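step: validate -> pass
step: tokenize input -> pass
step: predict -> running
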Amino acid sequence: MTESQSLAPPRSHRGKMLLTFGLLALPIWPFGIAAWMMSNTDLKAMANGKMDPSGLRLTRAGKILGILGLILNLLWMARMSLAHEAAMNAAKLPIH
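step: predict -> pass
step: emit ->
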């Protein structure tokens, strides 16, 4: 490591943004992917001392909410797909 690298201040954290993305992931699934991926990058940078660790809790919360939002949206999409299929099958039944 060179002297200029060791003297460089760590990048500021993006904890508030990642927490916001995690919250937005609950109704909008692409934010879940963004929160998850960006949080992983930031957590690695914090562990290596390249990013300000004061946003660690916000970053972790954003990651957890992003994953949760993504899972809930996938479950909702699967449920809607099954409901649509059931409705289409019910429409094909003959009426007596």
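step: describe -> The mean pLDDT is 90.
step: cleanup -> pass
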